[in-house]
Design a protein that fits this description.
Blueprint (H helix, E strand, L loop, with lengths): L1 E5 L6 H8 L5 E7 L1 E3 L11 E3 L6 E9 L1 H11 L3 E7 L5 E7 L1
Parallel strand pairs: 1-7
Antiparallel strand pairs: 1-5, 2-5, 3-4, 6-7
Length: about 100
Amino acid sequence: MVYLFSYGSLQEATIQLELFDRELRGWPDVVSGFVLSKEKAYGAYPILNETKNPAHRISGTVFELSEQELIQADVYEGEAYKRKLIELESGKRAWLYIAN
């Protein structure tokens, strides 16, 4: 299993059911050093930009995924995002989608 931190649409049960055929198990967490961009992916979805300033914090949900589900999430997120391995405030290491 791998961890994925979501701050957007992957937190929605309908999206999870559509992508993974199940609702994901998750819990709240926070990532620091990132801010929401004023730009939106595909005109509608939030994007994070890295600042490396620990005062910049984003709340979201960390989910457990299989490696195959992570690949499915990559396809869903598309070209607007790239995946980065980060450390959450809880100390867990998780994948995060940021601006590409």
